[in-house]
Design a protein that fits this description.
This protein is α/β, with parallel strands linked by helices. The chain contains 10 helices and 7 strands. It has a 7-stranded parallel β-sheet with strand order 3-2-1-4-5-6-7, with helices on both faces. Helix 2 (36-47) links the parallel strand 1 (27-31) and strand 2.
């Protein structure tokens, strides 16, 4: 029989885990947040308790529409708000403007989701130089400079016990081999996503001592405007879903839940990691 001392010692080591996934009062910035994966993530961040979520993308109207939809969600914390700040992340001057505009609303940022990106499909013999440069610039260079320019706001209130978070959108195409056959081959996209995943590891080492954790997600196929061409090339949603071990493609909650986890206290010791969100597709590709 227990004398109670062991139980008391064990209980003293237990912590309050009831709010371990909550983001109450946090301030987030989501680039490429007006649609697709960015919008799903922004919705998850707001519903998990963020007080402010800044939505940015190149198109002003799209940002306003996204914020209107987010602000109409019925289960937000009192005073929580999505704020539209349009900017073209492919230009350093626009990134700097974005930081200034965000700084008018807040003296710090807790979460930066660097999600803006582009793709380009072309066969090997005709893949144009300007397209390769465009994809690499937006998917890699602009990610680095977005994080660099936001670093002072990310550091402002970050502590070892409560670090700020940087999340970067990569892709399974940056881990395995992307589409390399036909007119929609994704040489530049795949190369850019491999580069940004390794950039994640480098930034984790650089920014960790500054109380900023840096991680990446690597989604597989999610029905979206950007992915529609590739999904069609592979035979459509139904065919792709059947080829996945779990029998489906990605859904909004798969992105939202992963982003919330990586930004929460539950992931406070996760740094420089890449979370694959593809239902097991990559690991099953070589099965007999």
């Amino acid at each position: 029989m227990s004398d109670g001392l062991g139980d008391a010692k064990a209980q003293a080591q237990l912590k309050d885990f009831t709010n371990i996934f909550r983001l109450d009062g946090k301030v987030a910035v989501v680039t490429g947040g007006s649609r697709g994966l960015g919008l799903h993530a922004a919705s998850g961040l707001l519903q998990a308790g963020c007080s402010k979520v800044f939505i940015t993308s190149r198109k002003s109207d799209a940002c306003k529409e996204a914020c209107a939809a987010l602000n109409a969600l019925p289960n937000l914390s009192p005073g929580a708000v999505a704020i539209s700040v349009p900017a073209d992340s492919s230009k350093i001057s626009e990134i700097e403007k974005l930081v200034r505009e965000v700084g008018k609303h807040t003296d710090h940022v807790d979460i930066l989701f660097a999600n803006a990106g582009a793709t380009w499909g072309a066969d090997f013999d005709s893949h144009p130089e300007n397209a390769f440069s465009k994809v690499m610039d937006l998917n890699v260079k602009s990610v680095f400079y977005t994080i660099q320019k936001f670093a002072p706001l990310l550091e402002a209130k970050a502590t070892q016990e409560d670090p700020s978070r940087v999340l970067i959108t990569g892709s399974v195409a940056g881990i395995g081999v992307g589409t390399v056959l036909g007119p929609n081959s994704t040489f530049s996209y795949s190369a850019s996503k491999a580069a940004v995943l390794h950039l994640t590891r480098n930034l984790a080492v650089e920014l960790g001592p500054r109380n900023i954790l840096t991680n990446a997600i690597a989604p597989g196929f999610f029905p979206s405007k950007m992915a529609s061409g590739m999904i069609g090339e592979y035979g459509g949603i139904e065919k792709l879903a059947k080829s996945n071990p779990n029998g489906r493609l990605g859904q909004p909650e798969d992105i939202a839940g992963t982003v919330v986890f990586l930004c929460s206290r539950a992931a406070g010791h996760v740094n420089g990691d890449i979370t694959v969100i593809d239902g097991g597709k990559m690991i099953s590709a070589g099965r007999l």
